[in-house]
Amino acid sequence: MQNNDAIKRDSGEIFVSSITKWLKTFIENTIEMDIVHFVGILFVMYAGNSYFGLTMFDSQPFPVMVAAAFIILRIFVREGNLKTPILFVTIGLLAVFGIVIGASQFFQFNMLFIRGVINYASIIIFMIAFYEFIKVYGFPLKILVAINLLWIFVALIQLIEPGVVSMFVAERTSAGRGVTSLGPEPSSFGFYLFFISWIYLLVTDYQPPLWLKILIGINVLSIFFLAKSALTIVFLIVSFLFYVVLNFKSLLNFRNIILTLTGIIIFIFVISVVLEGSRMERLFFQLLNADLALVLEGDRSVNSRLAHQVLPIYIFLSNLGFPAGLQSFVANVNDLDPSIVEFLWGNISDEKIMSWNATLIYELGLFGILVWILLFTFLMDGTLNRFGELSLLFVLLFSSVPQSYPLIPLIFVIMYMTNKRFTMIKKKMSVTKSG
Description:
This protein has 435 residues and is an all-alpha fold. The protein has one domain (85-429). The protein contains 21 helices and no strands. Helix 3 packs across helix 5, helix 4 (86-103) packs antiparallel against helix 5 (111-137) and helix 17 (356-364) packs across helix 18 (366-379).
């Protein structure tokens, strides 16, 4: 009996001793942990999942908050030598000039103004944070892939249980549309799949390893069968057209012509048969019949999205490029000719413009155009392909991509760091270092 008690006591002591030793090791490792690297990883994770958090917001404040924390820690904890590229600084200055001049026409210090300022600040903060992370720790491919797989996994679960993340994401979808995954709308899910796939291609110079090609393929299939996002499919079509134009001569052979025709047939089959009855099928055949008026009249979402692209640019031209500011969109729309507003009846009742580019050009005026001139100047690498990439991105951002979307600054940073004129920086683009 005494032997049994001794054995139990010895076992208990061993267990307590093991737990104590494990806790001690854990505490020591935590103390020695590179907190800057940890916060940087957290930032990358939030950047790849920027809608997850508070359901009262679509775009969350956490990515920019963690990005700012990472930059601060790089400066003070690691005494990092931050040499912010002149491109990022100049874009920030142009934004300040545009906001100040626009505010001289109409200004109220309210949440609308604060939100607008934070949106522009977030672009610069994201670019600096991504630049510093990649420069020090390498490109975070493994982290981005893990987040990518999480988006796909949640989307598959939503096919069975649609409300699986409703406590953390402001979901908006309806019958005939796709799932939202970790985004508020199917289009948000589609945008993520499209831009993250493009990021993979950019960082591997369009020569990804086989496993990454498979993931990109899964992302494209998910755009069609999970997100069912008509706008993201338009992204794919526009990208394909850009690719054909830029590579027309090399594609002009029998094999590529057959592949292209096969792809078109498969696309039409998927839309008309596999996705029969969906909103995407209806929109596709209306556009195929050149019935744009019917689409605009019958689909409020399409009409509203188009209005948020056309009206800001129309006002920009009417103002001769003068910055319109952060708080004047609704008032300026109400002052337009009634026939214009009647055709684009997308219920413009919010100062928030649903477009990355239209917001930039409307609010900053000519300063917004200068931002793009700078981007083309600093991101060009002397090749026609890079010009095509920037032109494609410029076109695609005339869509409902939010201005605070972190993946767009990441694309800018990748293009900057792979610019052949910055060979020393390009060495930091290794996708194998630190994941």
